[in-house]
Every structure is written in structure tokens, then in C-alpha cells.
Amino acid sequence: MAKKDEQAQPQGSGSVTSKRPFGLRDKIGYMFGDVGNDFTFILQMAFFMVFYTRMGVNPGFIGTMLLVVRLFDAFWDVIFGRIVDVLKPTKHGRFRPWIGRIAIPICVASALMYIPFVSSFSTTGKLVYMVCTYLLWNFLYTMINIPYGSMASVITDNPKDRASLSVFRSLGAMIAALGIQTVLPIFVYTYDEATGQKVLNPHNMAIAAIICAICGIISYYITFFNVEERVEPQVDPNHEKAGFGAMLKTVATNRALLALICAAILVLLGSFIAGQVMPFIFQDYFGNGQLQSWGGLVQNIPVLLLAITGAWLTVHFGKKEAISVALLFSGVVGIVMYFLHLDNVVIFLVLYFFMALGLSTFNSLVWAIITDVIDYQEVRVGERDDATIYAIYSWARKLGQALAGFIGGWSLTAIGYNEHAVEQGVTQTQSVLDGLYLLFLIVPAVLYLLAGLVMAFWYPLTKQRVHENYLTLRGRREKATGRKADLDSKFVGDSEDAQVVDPAAGVKVPAGGSSATAEWVSPVMRDTALGRETSEERRMFEEDRRIYKEDRRDSKDE
């Protein structure tokens, strides 16, 4: 029999296993998962392009390779996500075991990408080695990142706790980013007498990659031993799970997911293009690659601030609302910086802090938004496909990364960047420097503005709607199990209209009350129970259910 202090309270739409309660141990454990991720991911984003450019590879070729491999990997994300969803869980859960299985292989693959003897290869040899090692790393990254991201929805179902997990995940990314973007530039950039600039040293880069790999392995195993999967979806024995094709059709009607995908692609295009150009901005525009460490520090300070204020923002304003304003703010600051055309690196970094502040808000809260989208899908169709939905979102991220790598690489070629400048003992021309400045600021700024508009006007999950979905899924579980689950009174109380109707069964919960005492009503009373006119929402719901049932029939016929 489990000890009393290890009994978990019922937490949501799925059954909750009797394990230790959710707490700080889970948050810290989950945080280290993204530390492990980003010891390879941010390393690739920050140094892959400049490393192989230093090896003499044309940046346009690098961009093309990034596009092709990431497009392939994007589809692998969706396939692997479905594999994770359909495999039977082990004693450690459905997602957690993958962290332990893939931790060592992915970190070894990451270190292999930065071997300095590549410089002695022929042009073809360089390209083959670059493609093979990058493809291997991408393949393995999917196999650890999809389970890691999906795991947040089964660690807890409480929206506040999920927001806290999202913030801790971003804090983990900040820890890795500070090490990679702030410390590594001091070590990997050394003085070059021919150009009089501090440029990337390939041998130092290899040592740095090995150190990051070791740190990544340690971080992954901290996650493996310190998180618990608690939430399991309720399984109706009379309900046949939809086929893969039907599931994809249903997900394609999920407005929240589609809007998030669009916004994520825009944000990733902007942030990845800026991330790829950042080493060149400091190495060539400001003439000192070691200044990238200050850029990395300024870029990550906002993440620390959001670790303190992120939960407060979600409780008082909502995730959608905070992200929309933040992205619009980042876009405006970037445009102002571009037209100022700054030469003073101190002023540049101060203003860049404010541009990064808005972007960091999106990055800190987006993982909590994913869990909201997963809940929204379950409310709509009655099935929970955590890994599949996360994989589709990851697919969109990979698409954005692919386009960003392609655009970033060929943009450097288009502005005339000379990849042999160090060997030739020359610096980049003024037109190239102006082009770098444009790529780093104006392109991301415009993309952030567009993403902010998408989140403001297309993404439907407002603060109140998230409250409603939370209570709906609570009500479903209580009806299925006959057990009372205590609601988070503070969370419910934050909503002025805390009544909700389950669109499938119909449950109305009084404000501040427990769903165990809910009044069960028919779906046609949805508008009345919510106390406001929602005929359009009811029409959309009925259409969703119709499409879902048709897709299931088609799947059975196949």
C-alpha cells in the first residue's frame, strides 16, 4: 500500500495513478530535460552555420541542406509521435522511457558534427559528412524531444501547474543558452592576425561540443529520475480509437492548433534567422566574435524574468493575451533598431534586450499553450492524442526551422558574404555588413508582428476558454469514475464566469464550486448554462462532431 503522503489527488480528465504529489521535484526534473535538449539544439543553432562556413562550405549549400533534412525530419516527427501514442506504456510510463534510451546516442551524434579534421576533406567530402552527421542528430532529436514535450500533459493536468512547467522548461533552455551563447564564444573565438578580428577556432569548437554532450547526458538522466507520469486518459471499452488518417483530419479542424502552428512558423523563421546571423553580426559587423557572449546574455535575461513573472502573467492576463502583446512589442522594437542603424554595441545590446523580452514571452509560455491545445482537442472529439498533437506542432517548428536555415544560408550568399575572408586575410564589404544588419533586425521584426496578429485574432483559447475546458474535462472524469476531484479554488475563482458545459455530455459547474456537485444538462442548454450567447460556438462544435464521426466511419471502412 502506498504511503499516505504519496497519494496523488485526482487531477483531471484521465485517471490519476497513486504516485507522489506533483511538486518542485517534477519542475526541476522537467527543467533539466530542456537543459539536455538545448546543449545540442542551441549549440547547433548558434554555431553550426558559422562552423561549416569556417570549414569553407558555401552558406547557400548549408541552407539547402538544412531545408532538405529538416523537411524530412518534420514528417518523421509526425510518424514518431503516432508511434509513441500507440505503443503500450512501460512501468515508467509512456514518454519517460525514451529519455533514458536516447540520451547518450543523441549527445554523441551532436559532438560528431563539430570535428575539425573536416577542413582537410574535399568539397564533396565536407558536404557528405555535414549531411550525414546532421541527419543522424535530427533523427535522434525527434526521438527524445517528442516524448519530452508530450510528457508535460501527463505530469499534471492543472493549468497553473502546466504553466509552471512551461516556465521551468524555458528556464532550462536559458541555463543551456547562457552556457552556450555567453560562455562558449569567449572560448571558441580566438584572435586572427591576418584579419585583426576574433574568429571561430575549429579545434576549440570541437572541445566545446564534447563538453556540451557530456552535460547533455547528465541533464537527461536528471529528468529521467525525477519526473512522474500521473495522468492517464479515460478509456471507454466501447469506443474504438480513430485511425491515423481520421485523426489527422480531425486535428486539421482544430483552430487553436492551426493558429498556433502559423504563429510558431513565423516566430521560428524570425528567431532562427536572427540566431544564424548573430555570430556574423558580432564577428563581422562589430569586428569581435566574443561579443556574441554579451548578445547571448542579453537574450536570456528576459527568460529569467519570465521564470519569476510567467505564472503571474497567465493567471492575471492569460497566455494568449500575454503572448500577443509581447510579440507585437518585439516587432516594433526591432523596426526602431533597424532605422537607428546603431554602431555603438552598448546601445545596440540595451535595445536588443527589449526586443528579446517579447520573444522570450512566447518561448516561455508556448509549451503551456500546447497542453491547452491538447485539452481543447479532447473536449472537441473525446480522444486524447498528446504525442500526436505535440508531434504535429513539432513538425511545424521543424518546417519553420527548415525555411529559416534555407533563407538564412542563401541570404548570406545573396548579400555577398565571403566565406573565405579569414583565409584571404580580408574583411567583409560595407554592403555585406549592411545586409547582415537587415537580416538580424528587420526580417525578424516583421515576422514577429505577423505572429502577434495571428495570436491576437485567430487563436481562440482565451483565458476564460481555457478555464472552461479545464472544468469540462474535470466533469467528464468525475462522471466516468464517480469520484469527486477537488477543483483548484483559486484557479476557478480567477474566472468571472466559471460555469462550463461539457459539449459532449453537458455539465454545468457553479462558479467556485466542485464539479462533483455539477448539474448535468443536455448539450442544447449550452448557451443558457454559459449565461451568454454562444450559438456560433455551438454550431462549430456540432460541425466538429459531425466531421469526427464521418472520419471514424471512413477509417472503419478502410
UniProtKB/TrEMBL annotation:
Cell inner membrane recorded as keyword: no
Swiss-Prot/TrEMBL GO biological process terms: carbohydrate transport; sodium ion transport
Molecular function, one GO term: symporter activity
Keywords: Membrane, Transmembrane, Transmembrane helix
Pfam family, one: MFS_2
Region (Disordered): 1-20
Transmembrane segments: 35-55, 61-81, 102-121, 127-146, 167-191, 203-222, 257-282, 294-315, 322-340, 346-370, 399-417, 437-459
CDD domains: MFS_MelB_like
Name of the protein: Glycoside/pentoside/hexuronide:cation symporter, GPH family
